[in-house]
């Protein structure tokens, strides 16, 4: 990457982070909301740990994977709505009139989303450790977990940017948020897939990519080093990232047709 | 290589399911000239600017800016121009200084120069004190001035200003006019300025193109355009309203009657040269005058003559 491009990416990523940091609701909501859900669910679903075959005695450890995915969803919404706002206000036109390369805009916007994703992940991990969760994969596993959080922020962020570019509307991006949330709820979010007794639900959870993202995080927290879970998690997140980047690059090309 | 800063031939822009927003316009702008593109809302001004700054591809025709084709040589065009478009596209969460530094980085100014250039422009547009405030706290005039500063970061040779003073108070408007005028006179920047304000075009522009329904209906210097369509009017308000008839009879010797709401007006047959004769005739008849005014033809008269509509009337309707 040339020095000029690197500076452009840094400047745009910095803008994205500064924007988020100056809107306290955008910083606090992705941190507090998943933690509240974790507290409620780990209390309410504690009895699950008594099921034969349940992988851990700690419901908090089991559910700690969920905030990482929810955090990525918030990153999706932020990245997409920010770009949609830039389209609505004409700021994208201003950027288009500079020699800035398109890749700098995408990379900068995603850099902001990944930074936010990383900060959120450190916070979730710190809360988990503070309430007694111990990572079976150790310190190295924590680093892999953070890397995975950044990857899913990139993957979902790219999808958010695609929706923002296609629709040019922050409201439309926010309209996609419930869809992503539904995908989270019909996954192995609350119970391991092998313990889901309702066939259709188990089948849906099995084909739902979100299940494998959760299980990747869960493996690092509960199991230790599970090559298959890691490969599936990183593979699926990588595939979503590639699809998202491809779609958003194409959409940006159309939006900045010049 | 063309000698013109901007050269447009047969430029057309059609939108899907819409009329031709720009319908075959031709124009040239010389280096260092301020070209005023005057017309009502929806006339095609902004669409033309969007094509010239490479944000919108033309449907037909050609346009060269700084000698570069806007379709084939977009990057070269963008390196040569600065633009402040109709909406002051700013990020309310960033400060003025952050905007300028971001713009300087994206324009690839050398790192050492960025802060100096930002400070220089903040000073020039009078935003030094507000430089570290978030833009969402700025007034409309401050946003417009920042917008102008952002367009100047990379020292462009050609500046596009799309209705830069719309919605501004008279003080902000005058300050912006002074800066635009200075840019052209002192720095030799070519300015392509769209406006719906007659006064703005009259005061600032070296030449004016009047656009209506996507066509250029008149073009020239403001004085030439006004001279082309008519003669000045003299309006006399008698001190005693009962003397209006006598005043009308005297003025009738100098030209045909024109509309006046306060007194009596005539279109001077021989132009301004008749004015001394009018004063002498009124004096020799012993008529006392409360007010006497010479009205030069305005650009609105030009617009009226070319389109059958009044630009001022349309602006007032839109404001209402």
Mean of pLDDT of chain B = 89
Give the spatial strand order of the biggest sheet of chain B: 6-7-8-3-9-10
Largest sheet of chain A: none
Q: Runs of chain A with pLDDT <50, length 5+?
A: none
- What percent of the residues of chain A sit in helical stretches (DSSP H or I)? over 70%
How many DSSP-defined strands of chain A?
A: 0
* Total strand segments of chain B: 14
- For the termini of chain A, the CA-CA separation is 23 Å
Radius of gyration of chain B: 23 Å
Q: How many helix segments of chain A?
A: 11
Helix-strand topology string of chain A:
HHHHHHHHHHH
Task: Spell out the helices and strands of chain B N to C.
Answer: EEEHEEHEHHHEHEHEEHEHEEHEHH
SS content category of chain A = mainly alpha
Mean residue pLDDT of chain A: 91
Computed Rg of chain A: 19 Å
The SS-based structural class of chain B is alpha/beta
Distance between the termini of chain B: 48 Å
Unreliable residue runs of chain B? none
Give the SSE layout.
The complex is a heterodimer of chains A (258) and B (320).
Chain A: H1 3-21, H2 24-44, H3 59-63, H4 65-89, H5 91-96, H6 102-130, H7 138-167, H8 170-185, H9 199-207, H10 209-223, H11 227-255
Helix pairs in contact in A: 1-6, 2-4, 2-6, 4-6, 4-7, 4-8, 4-10, 6-7, 7-8, 7-10, 7-11, 10-11
Chain B: E1 6-14, E2 20-29, E3 34-38, H1 45-52, E4 60-65, E5 68-69, H2 74-80, E6 81-84, H3 96-106, H4 111-124, H5 140-152, E7 158-162, H6 170-187, E8 190-195, H7 198-204, E9 207-212, E10 215-220, H8 222-229, E11 233-238, H9 244-251, E12 255-258, E13 264-268, H10 275-284, E14 289-295, H11 299-307, H12 311-319
Parallel strand pairs in B: 3-8, 3-9, 6-7, 7-8
Antiparallel strand pairs in B: 1-2, 1-4, 4-5, 9-10, 11-13, 11-14, 12-13
């Amino acid at each position: 990457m040339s020095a000029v491009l690197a500076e452009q990416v840094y400047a745009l990523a910095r803008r994205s982070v500064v924007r988020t940091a100056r809107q306290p609701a955008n910083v606090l909501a992705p941190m507090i909301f998943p933690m509240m859900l974790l507290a409620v669910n780990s209390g309410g679903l504690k009895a699950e740990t008594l099921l034969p075959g349940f992988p851990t005695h700690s419901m908090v450890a089991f559910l700690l994977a969920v905030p990482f995915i929810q955090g990525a969803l918030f990153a999706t919404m932020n990245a997409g709505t920010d770009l949609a706002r830039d389209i609505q206000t004409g700021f994208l036109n201003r950027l288009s009139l500079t020699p800035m390369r398109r890749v700098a805009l995408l990379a900068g916007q995603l850099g902001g989303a990944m930074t936010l994703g990383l900060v959120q992940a450190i916070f979730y991990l710190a809360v988990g450790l503070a309430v007694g969760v111990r990572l079976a994969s150790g310190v190295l596993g924590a680093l892999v977990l953070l890397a995975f959080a950044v990857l899913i922020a990139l993957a979902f962020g790219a999808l958010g940017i695609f929706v923002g570019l296609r629709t040019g509307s922050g409201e439309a991006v926010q309209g996609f948020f419930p869809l992503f949330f539904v995908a989270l709820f019909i996954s192995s979010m609350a119970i391991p897939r092998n313990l889901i007794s309702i066939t259709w639900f188990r089948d849906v959870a099995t084909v739902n990519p979100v299940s494998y993202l959760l299980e990747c995080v869960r493996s690092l927290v509960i199991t230790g080093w599970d090559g298959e879970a890691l490969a599936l998690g990183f593979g699926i997140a990588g595939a979503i990232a590639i699809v998202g980047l491809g779609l958003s690059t194409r959409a940006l090309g159309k939006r900045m047709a010049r | 290589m063309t000698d013109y800063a901007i050269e447009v031939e047969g430029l057309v822009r059609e939108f899907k399911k819409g009329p031709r927003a720009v319908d075959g316009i031709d124009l040239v702008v010389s280096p260092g000239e301020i070209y005023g593109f005057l017309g009502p809302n929806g006339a095609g001004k902004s669409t033309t600017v969007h094509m010239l700054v490479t944000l919108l591809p033309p449907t037909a025709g050609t346009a060269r800016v700084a000698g570069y084709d806007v379709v084939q040589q977009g990057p070269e065009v963008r390196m040569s121009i600065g633009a402040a478009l109709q909406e002051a596209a700013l990020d309310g969460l960033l400060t003025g200084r952050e905007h300028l530094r971001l713009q300087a980085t994206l324009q690839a100014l050398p790192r050492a120069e960025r802060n100096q250039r930002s400070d220089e422009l903040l000073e020039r547009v009078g935003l030094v004190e507000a430089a570290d405030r978030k833009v969402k706290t700025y007034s409309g005039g401050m946003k417009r001035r920042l917008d102008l500063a952002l367009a100047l970061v990379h020292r462009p040779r050609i500046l596009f200003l799309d209705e830069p003073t719309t919605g501004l108070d008279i003080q902000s408007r005058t300050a912006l006019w002074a800066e635009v005028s200075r840019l052209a006179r002192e720095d030799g920047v070519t300015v392509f300025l769209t406006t719906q304000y007659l006064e703005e075009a009259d005061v600032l522009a070296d030449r004016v193109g009047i656009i209506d329904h996507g066509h250029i209906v008149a073009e020239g210097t403001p004085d030439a355009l006004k001279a082309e369509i008519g003669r000045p009017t003299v309006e006399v308000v008698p001190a005693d309203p009962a003397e209006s008839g006598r005043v009308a009879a005297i003025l009738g010797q100098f030209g045909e009657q024109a509309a006046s709401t306060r007194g009596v007006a005539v279109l001077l047959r021989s132009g301004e040269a008749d004015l001394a004769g009018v004063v002498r005739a009124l004096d020799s008849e012993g008529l006392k005058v409360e007010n006497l005014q010479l009205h030069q033809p305005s650009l609105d008269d030009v617009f009226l003559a070319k389109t059958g509509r009044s630009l001022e009337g349309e602006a007032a309707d839109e404001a209402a």
